[in-house]
Amino acid sequence: MSIAEKFEELYGSAPEGVWAAPGRVNLIGEHTDYNDGFVMPFALPHTTVAAVSRRTDGVLRLHSADVEDGVVELRVDEIAPRSDTGWTAYPAGVVWALREAGHAVTGADIHLASTVPTGAGLSSSAALEVVTALALDELYELGIERPQLARLCQRAENMYVGAPTGIMDQTASACCEDGHALFLDTRDLAQQQIPFDLAAEGMRLLVVDTRVKHAHSDGEYGKRRAGCEKGAALLGVTALRDVAYDELDAALERLGDEEEVRRLVRHIVTENHRVERVVSLLKAGDTRAIGPVLNEGHASLRDDFRISCAELDLVVDTALSAGALGARMTGGGFGGSAIVLVEAVDAETVTKAVEEAFAAAGYTAPRVFTAIPSAGARRLS
Ligand code: ADP
Ligand code: MG
Question: Is residue 339 assigned to a domain?
């Protein structure tokens, strides 16, 4: 059954339209987005698809093919931040954020189905928010530009769901282009689409979903954010983005015996620099040379930011021993996914090595797929 047919079965008439928004993987620039820094995600072919119709009676009906809840019915004038802890908080939060911003959204029927793995660090939450926001923007003719749409979705996730995420995920889902990575300055949201077509150069980027998410990850994210803010305050800057790479040694000296803050600052400053290096290398057509930069990024996340875990380290170490050009954890950390840059001819060997290493360690089998830079959110019909 197609998504439009399922919509009709649920709600009794055909949807006004069908939209899609992708998950994303971050090539480089980890935990920099809440430090006003640089990130470089690209969109995956995996999408969350929404069939949507307007309503004029203030009712919001939500259904997802991926959960067992059935149709959930809410009233748009009653939804309020943190009132809802289930999956419906993401789309309801978008409706709340749109209405908060003064847009007259008077209800909707929404049916969703997704191929984005959830909780794998590939941003199924942003895909869900962005597809909802884009559908409502177009149906209600709100005329919101993509970067602002992403901001509204971030606001939904921060204020309504209560997850303190940065702006990267929603911007990636809303703004990425086919065959490109998105170089995003999270301070002013300036964007550059950087051509990133690995297949044409005989390479592949593998995503390895470790299938683990360690329970303490949310609390640890909050601690890293607070630590970065402390670092910025101690250094007298608005955000760690303002510490230039060639001022790093002086900044670390000023932080004296604040050992933990020093490590966080070192990661953010060197990571911003790595994003700029990757952008330069890709622009120069020197794609293979980004491998060592990815490796440095992993070491920094493992040793300075301290958000890796045994499963992610095993992917990276095994892939590099098996001949990968570069590898690093991606996303929030403590589980989720790693990315591995390989020569296309080595993809199978590297995949097999990682699978065997996981089996030997007694871990759940990882899910491995090739990430093809794909289009951002769009209308399908
Ligand atoms: P990630 O964004 O890395 O996948 P999150 O924890 O941020 O992980 O978001 C995952 C949550 O988003 C799920 O637990 C669920 O509540 C919600 N979600 C994502 N996709 C869907 C979907 N297709 N249907 C229902 N809920 C979804
Ligand atoms: Mg998420």
Answer: yes
Instruction: Lay out the sheet containing 41-54: strands in order across.
Output: 72-75, 59-64, 108-114, 41-54, 17-26, 378-379
- Grade residue 216 by pLDDT with cuts at 50, 70 and 90: confident
**C-alpha to C-alpha distance for 279 and 308, rounded to whole angstroms:** 24
Q: How far is the CA of 109 from the centre of ligand 2 (A)?
A: 23
38 and 186 co-located in one domain: yes
> How far away, in angstroms, is 360 Cα from ligand 2 center?
30
Ligand 1, atom 8: nearest CA belongs to which residue? 119
Say yes or no: 246 and 135 in one domain.
Answer: no
| 280: containing domain | 196-370
What angle, rounded to 10 degrees, do the helices at 89-100 and 146-155 form? 120
Ligand sitting nearest the alpha carbon of 117: 1
Catalytic residue among 36, 109, 169, 209: 169
pLDDT in tens, 171-184: 999 999 999 999 99
Binding annotation for ATP? 64, 119-125
* Same domain, yes or no: 133 and 230: no
Any idea what the CATH number is for the domain that residue 130 is in?
3.30.230.10
- Residue 164 pLDDT grade (very low, low, confident, very high; cuts 50, 70, 90): confident
The domain total for the chain is: 2
In a domain, 318, yes or no: yes
Which one of 46, 67, 118, 367 would you pick to mutate in the ligand 1 pocket, going by the greatest count of ligand atoms within 8 A of its CB?
Answer: 118
Q: Indicate if 104 and 219 belong to the same structural domain.
A: no
Contact at 8 Å (CB) between 34 and 166? yes
pLDDT (0 to 100) of residue 349: 98
- How distant is the alpha carbon of residue 280 from its chain centre? 23
Q: Which ligand is nearest to the CA of 124?
A: 1
Instruction: Give residues with Cβ within 8 angstroms of 320, minimum separation 6.
Output: 295, 326, 327
Q: How many CB atoms lie within 10 A of CB 256?
A: 10
State the average pLDDT over residues 80-99.
94
Q: Are residues 40 and 131 in the same domain?
A: yes
Task: Check if 169 is active-site.
Answer: yes
Give pLDDT, residue 214: 87
User: Which residue's C-alpha comes closest to atom 16 of ligand 1?
Assistant: 87
Is residue 312 one of the residues assigned to a domain?
yes
Query: pLDDT of 272-281, one tens digit each?
Result: 999 999 999 9
What is the per-residue pLDDT for 26?
Answer: 97
Question: What is the chain's mean pLDDT, rounded?
Answer: 97
